[in-house]
């Protein structure tokens, strides 16, 4: 690879060696060197210098000159009105939308608005039905609650009346001993205690 692509420094050294060779030849010949010099030698040397200068300028152009060439018009004068108009037209958008809608767009817009209207109508109808169903369920709940409440109150009153009737009947029967015996009649107390109550009740009746 090094043989195919020699380093840049080697090329510079070759140019320097060629220059040194010519200088040494001139020094060796002394004043006689001018006798061997021809016009073709100067042209050849100048061509080499011009070619090298052109190559250098092509590889490394002057930035300031390029900017000045871009800023200055080709004819050397300021941009005229025609150029300004062309630039303004170039800046304008290429596509200009039509000022009026086509029949297809109008038809699509009309159909779209109709679909939106129907959708809103259906949503409003569903919302109304849902609201009515919720109100009905709430009314049914309160109605059932009130009915159960009335039934509970009625049952409580009836139980209270039965209790008061039994109480009055209880106090109307015999003396305290017979009532006590009636209280323990359905229970399972001490048999001896029950016998004493029965005997006491008989004694009070005599």
TrEMBL record:
<dbReference type="GO" id="GO:0030130">
    <property type="term" value="C:clathrin coat of trans-Golgi network vesicle"/>
</dbReference>
<dbReference type="GO" id="GO:0030132">
    <property type="term" value="C:clathrin coat of coated pit"/>
</dbReference>
<dbReference type="GO" id="GO:0006886">
    <property type="term" value="P:intracellular protein transport"/>
</dbReference>
<feature type="compositionally biased region" description="Basic and acidic residues">
    <location>
        <begin position="103"/>
        <end position="139"/>
    </location>
</feature>
<feature type="compositionally biased region" description="Acidic residues">
    <location>
        <begin position="32"/>
        <end position="50"/>
    </location>
</feature>
<protein>
    <recommendedName>
        <fullName>Clathrin light chain</fullName>
    </recommendedName>
</protein>
<feature type="region of interest" description="Disordered">
    <location>
        <begin position="29"/>
        <end position="142"/>
    </location>
</feature>
<keyword id="KW-0968">Cytoplasmic vesicle</keyword>
<keyword id="KW-0472">Membrane</keyword>
<dbReference type="GO" id="GO:0072583">
    <property type="term" value="P:clathrin-dependent endocytosis"/>
</dbReference>
<feature type="compositionally biased region" description="Basic and acidic residues">
    <location>
        <begin position="51"/>
        <end position="62"/>
    </location>
</feature>
<dbReference type="GO" id="GO:0005198">
    <property type="term" value="F:structural molecule activity"/>
</dbReference>
<keyword id="KW-0168">Coated pit</keyword>
<dbReference type="Pfam" id="PF01086">
    <property type="entry name" value="Clathrin_lg_ch"/>
</dbReference>
<dbReference type="GO" id="GO:0032050">
    <property type="term" value="F:clathrin heavy chain binding"/>
</dbReference>
<feature type="compositionally biased region" description="Polar residues">
    <location>
        <begin position="70"/>
        <end position="80"/>
    </location>
</feature>
<comment type="function">
    <text>Clathrin is the major protein of the polyhedral coat of coated pits and vesicles.</text>
</comment>
<dbReference type="InterPro" id="IPR000996">
    <property type="entry name" value="Clathrin_L-chain"/>
</dbReference>
<comment type="similarity">
    <text>Belongs to the clathrin light chain family.</text>
</comment>
